[in-house]
Design goal:
Elements: H1 2-25, H2 29-34, H3 40-63, H4 66-74
């Protein structure tokens, strides 16, 4: 579980960085590749939200101890 959270969080951070860099380059990642047209207000801050959520998921994965994982796997 620990590794899954860290990978998902890391991928969200990378996706957010790609979204942020793309927005400065004039490329709409959500509308261009994914096909979802976000409202202007949401589009402006979507990259920051993606990176923030990814960071918290990554940190949650780091906080999971090995003892908790072993106990949950044994059950």
């Amino acid at each position: 579980m620990k590794m899954v959270l860290m990978v998902v969080g890391g991928l969200l951070v990378v996706f957010g960085l790609a979204d942020l860099i793309g927005s400065f380059a004039g490329f709409d990642l959500w509308g261009g590749i994914i096909g979802v047209q976000l409202p202007e207000m949401v589009w402006k801050y979507s990259a920051y939200g993606e990176m923030l959520i990814g960071y918290f998921i990554f940190k949650a994965g780091m906080g999971v101890s090995e003892e908790v994982e072993e106990t949950s796997e044994a059950a």
